[in-house]
Amino acid sequence: MRHVPAEKVRDQIVRIFTAWGMEPAAVQTAAEVMVETDLSGVDSHGVSMLMDYESSRARGKLNVKAKPRVLRDGPVTALLDADAGLGHPAAKLGMEMAITKAAKMSLGVVTVRNSHHFGAAGYYAALAAKQGLIGMVTSCTRSINTVPTRAREALLGTNPIAFAAPAARNRAFLLDMATSSVAANKVRVYELQGKPLPEGWVLDDAGKPVTDATAGTDILFKRTPYKGGGLAPVGGGTTGHKGYGLSMMAHILGGTLSGASFSPIRNRTQRAQDPDNLGHFFMAIDPTAFRDEGEFEADLDAAIDVLHQMAPANPAEPVLVAGDPEAAKREQRLRDGIPIPDPLAEKIHEICKTHDVPFLLK
After folding, report:
1. Distance separating alpha carbons of residues 155 and 309, to the nearest angstrom
2. What is the pLDDT of residues 209-244, one digit of tens each?
3. Looking at CB atoms within 10 Å, which of 74, 268, 270, 273 has the fewest?
């Protein structure tokens, strides 16, 4: 394991994307989202995604010259086409448009289609909270890795949901969650780090927990002939139907509403070089449409204070609210650097050699 300063990780990403021929503005946006994701501790959605992006580029799935465009635009709503590029630029544009509309009309809803992976959903929800707005984000996904309740095989993706709300004295409430037990790439991160999987993340074809990270990676990324199994939906066991339902809600808003694909259907006819055609959903709400200026933030501060003041079951583990762990991790990693496991560094080094780019993560 090595710890690399955030600016050096950003520079590495920028150099690789620039070598691909991506537009400079898109390069900066994607690098920004990926580094902020790593700083917040979401290792599954930051620089570790470079191998996946490189694979999509090499197969012709990813349009490195993409220019997102507006297909429909109304006072409160809009629909964007990501032009088959990386999802980060179109996603940021989508939330920024929703924020602008909410500032004028109290509500903004924007969907994106024809996109690829966009990183951590929480990054975009947080953009709204920084402007004093409530933000909500969902997305459908390319990978099929999550087992619906009562099924033996995976059919759904991790289908994330993010929600952010601004406070006054406290940090914004920021929930960012997969509707599966965990993000699929986190299983691969655990394998890279040589760590066992927590019980309940991955199930085998008989519905039994898998704790070996290599076995879990084999199931999720089809490195052996697929025989069933995958990620459990949030809740698992007797309450997995809740995660299953939330997963479909995330897909309906991000995928069905935008006109993007549903992976099990798309994969019946999709060629290896076809874009993923993912869809994303962005909503921004102005609290002053419902409350006088400052009242919403004051009440949220009071609620967060009550939660923080609760007596913890374990004195070493204080009661937190969504967003606290990520904020603490960001502070630590800005100081100590972003952890890069040696196997991940080696894979990124190979990408650098492919594109004649200096390897900076030393």
Report:
1. 42
2. 899 999 999 999 877 788 899 999 998 777 889 999
3. 268
For residue 345, give the nearest of 193, 212, 211 by alpha carbon: 193
Around 276, how many Cα atoms within 13 Å sit in the side-chain half-sphere?
27
For the four alpha carbons of 203, 208, 213 and 219, in that order, the dihedral sign comes to negative
Crossing angle (nearest 10°) for helices 121-130 and 87-105: 30
Q: Is 322 helix (H, G, I), strand (E, B) or coil?
A: coil
Tell me the two tokens of residue 181: 């037990």
Alpha carbons within 13 A on the beta-carbon side of 9: 30
Q: Where does the pLDDT of residue 135 fall: very low under 50, low under 70, confident under 90, or very high at 90 and above?
A: very high
Q: Apex CA 9: angle with CA 254 and CA 351, to 5°?
A: 80
Q: Are 102 and 108 in contact (CB under 8 A)?
A: yes
Query: Collapsing DSSP states into helix, strand and coil, what is residue 116?
Result: coil
Give whole-number Cα distances, 348 to 159, 212, 217, in Å.
Answer: 26, 24, 19
* Beta-bridge partners for 109: 77, 283
Q: Kindly state the DSSP code that residue 152 receives in the 8-state scheme.
A: S
pLDDT digits (tens, 9 = 90+) for 301-348: 999 999 999 999 999 999 999 999 999 999 999 999 999 999 999 999
In whole angstroms, give the CA distance from residue 34 to residue 50: 10
Element (H, E) at 88: helix 87-105
Largest CA distance in the chain: 59
Q: Classify residue 337 by burial, with Cβ atoms within 10 Å: 0-12, 13-18, 19+.
A: middle
CA-CA-CA-CA dihedral for 327, 120, 146, 341, to nearest 10: -70
| Tokens representing residue 81 in the block | 């086409």
